[in-house]
């Protein structure tokens, strides 16, 4: 056979590839779930790989086949969370009702308090900057109605920075503030200045 000739995979090879992909998906989901579960009980800097693999019920070496460290896993979760937020919130984001958008955002965050606290406070500057960069990239592609007098990239950057900073305050020193009160404050600080 010519060395340039490609051989189509056999049915067994296709089945093996599918089983391997399914295992990879299942393992990564277990690792994500384990870290999210641990974040409800521990601060992110206190969480070790050993704790994650025990919670996920996978081998220690398995973790490193998927992620180089805990921060990479947290960043992966952040990306998935931002993507989930954008998908879930798209109809609301397209609404001209700033209050409705802000309340939906606050509800989304409140349902993921431990994870958001880890991303914005406990994960450190690198994780926070990475999450903000991803949010800005996603935000730039969403047809939200911003003030036409403000350049789009500036409006998105301001909104994301203001949201992240204000939410970090709410999840830290402002923990006792009620959801509705915080939603009104977030709308005034982050959304009102850039929305038309």
TrEMBL record:
Gene Ontology MF annotations: DNA binding
Keyword Transmembrane: no
Transmembrane segments: none
Domain HTH tetR-type, residue spans: 25-85
InterPro entries (UniProt xref): Homeodomain-like_sf, HTH-type_Tx_Regulator, HTH_TetR
Record's keyword annotation contains DNA-binding: yes
Chain residues forming the annotated DNA-binding region: 48-67
Signal peptide residue numbers: none
UniProtKB keywords: DNA-binding
Pfam families, A to Z: TetR_N
Protein name per its UniProtKB record: TetR/AcrR family transcriptional regulator
């Amino acid at each position: 056979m010519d060395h340039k000739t490609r051989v189509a995979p056999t049915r067994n090879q296709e089945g093996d590839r599918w089983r391997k992909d399914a295992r990879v998906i299942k393992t990564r989901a277990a690792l994500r779930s384990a870290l999210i579960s641990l974040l409800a009980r521990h601060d992110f800097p206190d969480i070790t790989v050993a704790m994650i693999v025990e919670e996920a019920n996978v081998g220690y070496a398995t973790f490193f086949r998927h992620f180089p460290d805990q921060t990479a896993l947290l960043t992966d979760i952040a990306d998935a969370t931002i993507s989930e937020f954008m998908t879930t919130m798209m109809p609301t984001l397209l609404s001209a009702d700033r209050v409705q958008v802000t309340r939906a955002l606050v509800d989304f965050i409140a349902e993921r308090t431990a994870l958001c606290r880890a991303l914005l406070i406990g994960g450190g500057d690198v994780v926070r900057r990475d999450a903000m960069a991803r949010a800005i990239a996603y935000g730039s592609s969403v047809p939200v109605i911003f003030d036409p007098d403000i350049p789009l990239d500036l409006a998105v950057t301001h909104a994301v920075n203001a949201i992240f900073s204000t939410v970090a305050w709410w999840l830290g020193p402002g923990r006792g503030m009620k959801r509705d009160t915080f939603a009104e404050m977030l709308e005034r600080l982050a959304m009102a200045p850039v929305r038309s």
